[in-house]
Amino acid sequence: MEHVTLESRDGVLIASMGRGKANAMNPAMLAELRAAVRQAEEDASVRALVFASSRPRFFSSGFDVLEVFLYDRPRMHEFFGSFLELCEAAARLPKPAVAAVSGHAFAGGAVLALACDARIFAGGPFGFALNEVNLGIMLPPGVMRMAIAAAGHEAARRLLLEGQTFSPEQSLACGLASAVVDPEQALDKSLEHARMLAAKPAGAYALVKSSLLRFAGHQGTDREHLPAFLDQWFREECRAARMALADSLKK
């Protein structure tokens, strides 16, 4: 793999992202992350999965703005469909999935963390944000349900409707973070948490996890909402906001 390194430690598969400065997601990186989830599900020796980052100060900044923002509608349909497939596969993994959020997690990076059963945050000047509303976009219902399930309705409202950026301490206060630790301890604490969850009877864990998803209304797939999402994405208001963001990053 080019952008994701896989390592197994005592039955826990670590999928460590390492693309560019901020783990910005492109199609190749999504494919590698999806392959990691598939390996975690199919390999009987793997009892849990941890998403991590090899980049200092970043878990993931989300989509690669300078690449993905230039896609036409068919290419964006393919890309965002792959992203939804990755997140839904992680959410439905019948084994524990933990995110070692060792730095900033924005947009798609935050959604990937939400798809996990638990999130261990690194303390420091880092932000967690679902700021798509600032670009004129409404995230699909499944992503919204993930945010509500992880952070509660009021915190999810601030994340989704107001586009607020949460600090690690704010994330801990609302339950979005399971723990906040020193940055150098984020991976080890995530592995510890994953092993704690993996020590539970596997069959019962898988059943309870799937039931919680069902009770939260997470049924089917968000792919049916792709046309509506793309209609928003290619509106002039959204296109202008995306281009302004891309231009600011170029500068």
Question: How would you briefly describe this protein structure?
Answer:
This protein is 49% helix and 17% strand. The protein is α/β, with parallel strands linked by helices.
| Termini gap | 31 Å
The class by helix and strand makeup works out as: alpha/beta
- Report the sheet with the most strands, covering strand number, pairing sense and barrel closure: 6 strands, mixed
In CATH, the homologous superfamily goes by the name 2-enoyl-CoA Hydratase, Chain A, domain 1
What radius of gyration results from the CA coordinates? Answer: 17 Å
Mean pLDDT: 95
The CATH architecture can be given as Alpha-Beta Complex
Count of individual domains: 1
How many strand units? 10
What is the spatial order of strands in the main beta sheet?
Answer: 1-2-3-5-7-10
Query: What is the quaternary state of this protein?
Result: single chain
State the share of residues found in helices, binned by percent. 40-55%
**Count of runs of 4 or more consecutive helical residues:** 11
H and E order: EEHEEHHEEHEEHHEHEHHHH
Query: What sort of overall outline do the alpha carbons produce when their principal axes are compared?
Result: globular
Spans where pLDDT lies below 50 across 5 or more residues: none
CATH topology: 2-enoyl-CoA Hydratase, Chain A, domain 1
The CATH class, by name, is Alpha Beta
Strand content: 15-25%
